[in-house]
Amino acid sequence: MDRKREIDILKALAIAGVILIHVKSVSIDLYLKNSSPYLALTFLDQAMRFSVPLFVALSGYTLALSYKNKPQSIKDFYRRRIVRILPYYFLATAIIYFYLRFVPPFSQIKNPYPLWEILFLGRADYHLYFIPMILSLYFAFPFLFPLVKKWPKATLAMALAIQSAIFISTALVFNGLVKFPFAWGDQQQYLVALTWIFYFVLGIGLSNIDRFSAKNLNLAKTFGVLLAVSGLALTIFESFRILAAHQNLIEATRFTRFPVMLFATGVILVSVLFAKYLLRIPKFAVRFLAKAGLMSFSIYLLHTIAIRMIILNVDVYPISHFLIFAAASLAASFILAWIFEEILKIAKSFVQDLLPDKAH
User: What are the extents of the domains in the chain?
Assistant: First the structure.
């Protein structure tokens, strides 16, 4: 599969959304609840909730495009995914772990998790749940792909039913109506791959848009736009309603809500179906965003360190300072990821130089 620059641009937009959610998370407590800045930051948070679902859908989409053009054995498929992800993840985990352990004021908070959870469940930092979660979906891909290919509607409906069941269960737990015999908080619900499976299967299914008739394609585009707009409105309305009733920010902003599912699904459809139009923006923006998209995995891994570095040197109050903090965090995340990848390139080159030349 030839690399599509528009998909890299979408990844750049998704990672920017993730960073802005986390920038808001470390800033919002400085503002009075229900004040205009507090509500504005909540609005920003909710508008960016397409980000992780879009990442998950693009993962399914790009895997499907690659897999159907160049079929691989399951063994080779797993090996390629592990080699591409785990070295980056383990190195980033080590960097984050030692940064939080030895750099004040963050070193005052000790990581309570055992080493195996830090390494394999993403417990080194709050955002690393994404890695074991997406790996779980990658491991399921060779089994999901033929199902989507043979029974696309039924498989999508099954994935929707499973994810909906997770959302309903989570809502019952948050409202105190059900209590599980195990922890099911903000981190646990995101770690489970079934929480995101509908987006992943949707991405796989969208890899076949070239087979859509012109009429069906136009209907899908219209449906996606309507879903994105109405879903965003419902997401923001519900978020403000929960805040007014309970003042529970985690409950009011979490990904596992049905309005967020509607919004994210609409954005995924719009993103994939209208992706080619992204190449019409100025060329310098295309080049920069495509580069950021190529680096999106490294940016994701290290952006929380960048945010912490910036917050030690920039005030986030009042709201004008927050804007500076957000822009600086975006820039610092990109720079830190670029340094990270350059170091890895040098290390890889050094290791290859030490290996015997296969030509002799």
Answer: 5-354
Q: For residue 48, what is the DSSP state?
A: T
Give this prediction's pTM.
0.95
Peptide bond into 105 cis (omega under 30): yes
CA distance 191 to 3: 29
283-323: pLDDT as tens digits: 999 999 999 999 999 999 999 999 999 999 888 888 999 99
In whole angstroms, how far apart are CA 219 and each of 84, 141, 215, 222, 273? 37, 28, 6, 5, 11
First-to-last alpha carbon distance for the chain, in angstroms, is 33
Nearest to 40 by CA among 51, 27, 53: 27
CB 7 within 8 A of CB 62: yes
- Residue whose token pair is 């737990």: 173
Q: Which DSSP helix (H) or strand (E) runs through 210? A: none
